[in-house]
Amino acid sequence: MVALIPLTPGGLGIVEASLSGLLILAGVKPDRAVLATLAYRLASYWLPIMAGTVSYFVFRRRYGKSKVTLTDP
After folding, report:
1. How far apart are CA 28 and CA 45, in angstroms?
2. Residue 41: closest CA among 2, 7, 67, 70
3. What would the pLDDT profile of 16-29 be if each residue is shown by its tens digit?
4. Under a CB-based contact definition with an 8 Å cutoff, are residues 45 and 10 in contact?
5. What pLDDT sits at residue 68?
6. 32-68 tens-digit pLDDT
7. Residue-wise DSSP of the chain
8. How many Cβ atoms from other residues are within 10 Å of residue 18's Cβ?
9. Fewest CB atoms within 10 A around its CB: which of 3, 18, 21, 52?
10. Backbone angles phi, psi at 16, to 5 degrees
């Protein structure tokens, strides 16, 4: 639910703080709660961004720039 509030792009910072806090309230040790939260955000937020960037450059290298142009009818 917290990630749906668009205060920062992708809930960056807000999600980490709230998820860590909720895990601590659930009885997880604070250091493990923060580590679990950061591991989760790394896998769910940062790795797809990095994979998309690499994919973009591989695609551009393989296929070059698009030769299609949009014109008004």
Report:
1. 23
2. 2
3. 888 999 999 999 99
4. yes
5. 61
6. 999 999 999 889 888 999 999 999 999 988 888 766 6
7. -GGGSTTSGGGTTHHHHHHHHHHHHTT--HHHHHHHHHHHHIIIIIHHHHHHHHHHHHHHHHH-S--------
8. 16
9. 52
10. -60, -45
